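pipeline/complex-builder :: batch 7 item 3
reading input block
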Amino acid sequence: MSPRWDLLVVAGLLALVGLGALGYGLRAGRRPVLWVGLFAVATAALFVNQAVRVSRLPERNPVPRTGQSVQVGSRLYRAHCAVCHGPEGRGDGPAAPSLVPRPADLRRTARMADGLLFARITEGLPGTSMPAFRDTLTEEERWHVVNFLKALTEEP
Ligand code: HEC
């Protein structure tokens, strides 16, 4: 997992500009400059946060997407996910109508990186009913589910 230097460089520059503006704003008693400085420093912190999050995503899927893996993923999906996301991943499972927000249409996950899908399944989505499967499914099982989701969008 390599650090995202691009994000960190932007954060560093923003922090420098921000701290400079803060220092000047304080010395000269210029409120607007102070606000700009604060804003730049806060934005720098967001960039650092994002860089850390992205660097924690697994970079590659260790489980090859074979027919067997997709089949295992499909079985796990029916057992753990279909109740919300629906049998074909359309977000129309039996529990869906009672959920706010509605479960995601998983056919759009084709564009998401495997590592990001893995992270969503592992951590869930705070603020929604999407549960974390860290303790429910093993790592390997979660990768099988990722492979199944990818295969889902490739069928006609
Ligand atoms: C209790 C209902 C429920 C269950 C069970 C559930 N989900 Fe979800 N899932 C949700 C909801 C609600 C969302 C959030 C929709 C939104 O706001 O984007 C979501 C979001 C997601 C997302 C993010 C999509 C995106 O665009 O970011 C993925 C991927 C996902 N679920 C996969 C799964 C998988 C795989 C399983 C089974 C291992 C599963 N979910 C089980 C309700 C559920």
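note: Residues 80-81, 83-85, 95, 99, 101, 103-104, 106, 109, 117, 120-121, 125, 128-131, 133, 145 surround heme C (CB under 6 Å).
queue -> next item
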